[in-house]
Structures are given as structure tokens and as C-alpha cells.
Design brief:
Layout: H1 2-20, H2 29-39, H3 44-50, H4 59-65, H5 69-76, H6 87-97, H7 100-103, H8 108-116
Helix pairs in contact: 1-2, 1-4, 4-5, 4-6, 5-8
Length: 118
């Protein structure tokens, strides 16, 4: 149990740095995310991404707030079914960033596809 908690802490720390640090390097996104998914059970990673465990918000909220499109695109790619619990966090990020396309109900999977083509 302790090892699982330590693993989650490590993954959350890496994701937090990815979506909030000032020295963001877009080309490192896939490498960092792949290292995170390699140490967690596959079903756990999508749940972790949608949980409000980074300063009261989900990882994708911070990726949107800090305009980390590369990170947002990669993170969204790991989620096949978005949780209704995550929706208010998404709406909040849309309001803060004035992203009206997302706020007006554009499905997040469409956003992921659009971001991957940027």
C-alpha cells in the first residue's frame, strides 16, 4: 500500500511540474507522460488525471490555464471516458482562459483531436 502511494506521489509530482513549471519544454511531454504511465496500473492513470489532486484542480485544468497545449493533448489521449466529476473543473478553466469554444460544450475528445493537429 505504501509503495502504491509513493508511486502516485511521484507521478503527481512529475505531472504537476509538467503543467505548471516555468521551464516547460514541449518536446519532453511524451517522454514524461510515458514514464508516468509505465509505473502506474493502466486503469489508474486516467483517474489520476481527472482527480482534483494538484492544488485543488485536475492536471488538465492546469495545462489549460498555463497554455500547455502539447501536454493537454497528450493527457487527453489517455482518457477514453471523461468523468462527470471533471466537467466543472474543465468549465472553470475555460472561464479563466476565456476559451469559449470549449466552454460552449465542445466535447473534450474533439479538443484532444484538434490540439494534436496543432
Amino acid at each position: 500500500m505504501l509503495r502504491r502511494k509513493q508511486t502516485r506521489t511521484i507521478v503527481l509530482s512529475r505531472i504537476h511540474d509538467l503543467v505548471t513549471s516555468y521551464d516547460f519544454i514541449p518536446s519532453s511531454v511524451a517522454l514524461i507522460i510515458n514514464s508516468c504511465t509505465a509505473i502506474l496500473p493502466p486503469a489508474e492513470f486516467p483517474d489520476l488525471l481527472q482527480s482534483r489532486n494538484l492544488d485543488g484542480h485536475a492536471a488538465m485544468y492546469w495545462a489549460m490555464i498555463h497554455n500547455r497545449r502539447e501536454a493537454l493533448s497528450v493527457l487527453c489521449g489517455f482518457i477514453s471516458q471523461f468523468s462527470s466529476v471533471y466537467s466543472p473543473d474543465l468549465r472553470s478553466a475555460c472561464e479563466v482562459t476565456n476559451d469559449h469554444a470549449l466552454f460552449n460544450g465542445r466535447p473534450i475528445h474533439e479538443v484532444s483531436v484538434a490540439l494534436s493537429s496543432v
